[in-house]
Structures are given as structure tokens and as C-alpha cells.
Design goal:
This is Lipoprotein. Keywords: Signal. The chain is an alpha+beta fold. It has 1 helix and 5 strands. Strands 1-2-3-5-4 form a 5-stranded mixed barrel. A hairpin with a 2-residue loop joins strand 2 and strand 3. The longest helix has 15 residues. The protein is elongated and about 70 Å long. About 20% of the residues are buried.
Length: about 100
């Protein structure tokens, strides 16, 4: 009986844990002009940047991206796992921005 109770507690403990994927996020540096996202076919990110003939969706919890709209900048961030979705661009979590 003790084994059944212990096994039940172990299963309950493991099923209540959540895991967050943190590995595999690669740092990226982009240079270009930040613009508001506007209407898109994909629904993630708040802004975008065109860099090296490629568009990236941007989001940030550290930097107020609106302060850099229509300005040429160099930004540093990490690619968010799970993106792009379908035909959308890669999503970047911006951590730093500097003027070009």
C-alpha cells in the first residue's frame, strides 16, 4: 500500500511541473529601420525590421520599441523558439537597441 501511495505522489508531482524551453535560442544582431507591425497575415510581434533583405517580427519586454519607430537602429535579441509560424517571419525578443 505504501508503494502505491508513493507512486501516486510521484506521478502527481511530475504532472504538476511545467518546463520552459530555454535552450536553442540564438542571439542575433540586426540593423535596419523599425516600423509598427500593422496588419499582417501572422499574429505575433508588435513591430518589424527589414534587415539584409529579410523581415523579422519584433517584441520586447525590456525595450519600448515605439521609441525607435522610423529610426535606423542596430538591435540585439534572441530568436524565439517555435517561430516562424506558417509563412510569417522569425520572431525576435529584443534586449538592446542602439542608434546606427
Amino acid at each position: 500500500m505504501k508503494k502505491i501511495v508513493m507512486l501516486s505522489m510521484l506521478v502527481g508531482l511530475l504532472s504538476s511541473c511545467t518546463m520552459k524551453k530555454t535552450g536553442g535560442m540564438s542571439t542575433i544582431v540586426l540593423t535596419g529601420e523599425i516600423t509598427p507591425l500593422g496588419m499582417t497575415t501572422f499574429q505575433y510581434g508588435t513591430h518589424k525590421i527589414n534587415s539584409e533583405n529579410k523581415t523579422y517580427a519584433l517584441q520586447s519586454s525590456r525595450v519600448k520599441l515605439d521609441d525607435f519607430v522610423n529610426k535606423s537602429v542596430t538591435l540585439k535579441g534572441k530568436k524565439v523558439l517555435g517561430y516562424p509560424i506558417e509563412v510569417g517571419p522569425e520572431l525576435i525578443e529584443v534586449s538592446e537597441i542602439s542608434f546606427k
